[in-house]
Design brief:
Order of helices and strands: EEEEEEEEEEE
Distance between the termini: 40 Å
Shape: globular
Largest sheet: 7 strands, mixed
Length: 128
Amino acid sequence: QVNLVESGGGLAQAGGSLRLSCLASGSVVSSRAMGWFRQPPGKEREFVAAVSARSGNTDYLDSVMGRFTISRDNAKNTIYLQMNSLEPDDAAVYYCAAKSPTFFSTTPYRRAADYEYWGQGTQVSVSS
């Protein structure tokens, strides 16, 4: 069982930055592909960023490429999403997700269906 807890959301001005954190308990993140998803108001959940279990390969939603960075700190069992140059369209509830262990996989997964564990989400608001 994996318990994921997101933090770091809040209100930022357009052009500003926030860093989201996702602390995993009950299992280590080093053996898992991890991802961030978001759900804007009135819209479906969408992929934002992912990092593979091995090799640190990453993948991003086109609209956040170059502005957002996903990273992991295995010693702290935590993944991060650094969000820079925030835009009003980035406002959403952001969710952390973990896949069942894939020790040797170098694939970052974009599909929500690939992830078995989810956090409760953290709200990100962006003022224009």
